[in-house]
Amino acid sequence: MFAKPIATLSDVSVEHRGAISIIRLTRPKKRNAISDGVMAAIGQRFDELPETTKAVVIDGEGEHFCAGLDLSSLKEMDAVDGVHHSRSWHKVLTAIEFGQVPIIAALHGAVVGGGLELATSCHIRVADDTTFFALPEGSRGIFVGGGGSVRITKLVGAQTVMDMMMTGRVYKAADGVARGFAQYHVPAGQALAKAIELAERIAQNAPMTNYALMHALPRIAEQTADHGFLMEALMSSVVQSAPEAKARVRAFLDGTGPKVKPTGIGN
Q1: CA separation for the pair 192, 59 (Å, rounded)
Q2: Left if phi > 0, otherwise alpha if psi is -120 to 50, otherwise beta: which for 157?
Q3: What is the β-pairing status of strands 132-134 and 12-17?
Q4: Which one, of 6, 88, 90, 85, lies nearest residue 41 by Cα?
Q5: Which residues are registered as beta bridge partners of 14?
Q6: Which of 130, 144, 183, 184 could form a disulfide with 126 if both were Cys (CB 3.0 to 4.6 A apart)?
Q7: Are 37 and 11 contacting, i.e. CB atoms less than 8 angstroms apart?
Q8: Which residues does the annotation mark as catalytic?
């Protein structure tokens, strides 16, 4: 039977910088490919974040963000083991997507297969000019198993995902951003700095607003309009009832709070 993977924490580092934390894949010789142990380590790093962390950046050491599943660690499985293997990835990536804090992915080099599944479990993605997106599963005789058929398809559509897996099509940074794989496009080598900039800005938001955006907004988008309107009303009332929200509204009204300006975070 499928054994619970042991977290290989040496392959995933964590750095705390005030209100943000940086979780980094540290397998550059493997192009940061993910084994079950690495995925378990990612989950453990998130579980161990201090309460002071208000936003997280995920990065990859070296030239690549993540080249996907570490095929050298993939043993032959029967159907039951295969299901448990896939579900173990689902558990970690779903906990990331619907966790306590927003996550920004700093993408560079390969964002391939399981690496793209990891990236799409994050809430914001920054791609630099070296980034390329691919799903080579078709040529390797496998199928996405870390939630890609759901998350990636929601971002770019079933036809795009089908084309990528059938033909091995690769999207470079600019085309990938235009398709919706990432929200920001920056020059080579600047993804991490931009991701940190965004994380620091996001960490200043009211925590319940960030929570509502992470947990309620995606579900509202999948509901019928009448159900979505009701959830919006309920979530809005919960968020604005928080003491911090009331204080921020008062600050805006008395002129001491921030105003929307035409200059802001772009690209």
Answers
A1: 7
A2: left
A3: unpaired
A4: 6
A5: 23
A6: 184
A7: yes
A8: 117, 137
Q: What is the pLDDT at residue 79? A: 84
Model confidence pLDDT, tens digit, residues 141-166:
888 989 999 999 999 999 999 999 99
Q: How far is CA 221 from CA 105, 154, 217, 229, 233, in A?
A: 22, 11, 6, 10, 14
Residues 6+ apart with CB under 8 A from 114: 33, 34, 66, 68, 69, 89, 146, 148
For residue 251, the model assigns a pLDDT of: 72
Residue 137 vs residue 161, higher pLDDT: 161
Q: Which three-class secondary structure state does DSSP give residue 124?
A: strand
Is residue 26 classed as helix, strand or coil in its secondary structure? coil
How would residue 1 be classed by pLDDT, with cut points 50, 70 and 90?
very low
Q: Whole-structure pTM over 0.85, yes or no?
A: yes
**Is the predicted pLDDT of residue 44 greater than 90, yes or no?**
yes
Q: Could you tell me the end-to-end alpha-carbon distance of the chain, in angstroms, rounded to an integer?
A: 47
Domains (range + CATH), the chain: 9-202 (3.90.226.10), 207-253 (1.10.12.10)
The residues, any chain, with a CB within 8 Å of residue 166's CB and separated by 6 or more, are: 138
The radius of gyration computed from the CA coordinates of the chain, to the nearest angstrom, equals: 19
